[in-house]
Amino acid sequence: MAQPATPTVRVVTLRIDDHDLSAREDETIIEVCREHHIPIPSLCHLDGLSVWGGCRLCMVELEGQSRLYAACSTRVAEGMRIQTQSDRLRRYRHTILELLFAERNHVCSVCVSNGHCELQWLAQKCGVDHVRIPYRHVAYPVDSSHEMFRLDHNRCILCTRCVRVCDEIEGAHTWDVMNRGTDCRVISDLAQPWGNSDTCTSCGKCVQVCPTGALVKQGTSVGEMVKDQHFLPILARRRHLS
Amino acid sequence: MSAPKITVATTWLDGCSGCHMSFLDLDQRLVELAQLIDIVYSPLVDAKTLPESVDVGILEGSISSDDDLEKAQSFRKHCKLLISLGDCAVTGNVPAMRNPFKLADVFDRAYRENVTLQPQIPTRDVPALRVPVKPIHGEVKVDVFIPGCPPSAEAIWYVLNELIAGREPDPSSVTRFGA
To answer: Which of A41, A70, A85 is the last residue of a domain?
Structure first.
């Protein structure tokens, strides 16, 4: 979302929790929160990629509105009063995380991303110490056909960061999404094995932005997959300026 | 120390005993803990029967067999407070990774395909396996969850001390899934 500042962009004042803040009117709530170190959980949002609004973890309350708003896809406005923490929000976030754990097979203790996983970290932050919903325990495929990387659908939370970074930053658009509901999967090319992809440049950006152990480097063992997303804001700025 | 000690019972179901080993990793703090609690039933002590009433029950491992289920139900019945210790008890963890497969295939894999001498499926004196493997709270009510594989001695120490002090512990402040 980083766009060059123009003189016509106005500044608005707003209140987030107990903080009186000012922000550019073209900013989203989550961007303002990140700037001011106000913690809001999120999994699909990533600075430098387009807005997706899929994970629903960043929902906030707006004063005078009964429905919740996704902080990543809602722009700030003059006089806005925002609550980022409440019992209702904590309850919803807690349940969303439980649903993510129950849907596929996130076995943290044997995952290559153990200790470096955003889902695992958020669960701890949000106090998810067990999952009340029965686990589905349905096996999803693993694609190890690429010589450098591996895709484990069991760990995928469908945040689509890989799809967006491949399209918007690398410009290859190898990744996309197919099917719906529990059958929903990220696919390379037209659902071909990743190793056979004609479009993949093997740049590895998708691996680095993946919040879990779904996209990883080949040859990593438990806890060894550490991701580095430092490239993203730099490349995103260049993309948007060019 | 005239106050009666808190009674504690522990056992492991389908787990690797690593959580109990982590408990032993309390090292010299075990001496301190022994001033406050009495372990009345556990693989770590000699007692063979679970007393009628126990203050705190600690279960390691998932519920994978009929025997696991009986033990979990018995602990729930006799313990005032029940703790799920470790990822197998809390999530099903590694034991639950057999759930996507048919039980017959799991048996074949374990007792036929990988066996060179007299491959056979054991049927005598072993409890029947259940489908699916479940975390403890999938069968009985659990009061406190300590995730981790295994939870560190520090996490166990923190939770037990909070309970002894009469406070409600926040396990997420010290441990997580896969810790």
So the answer is: A85
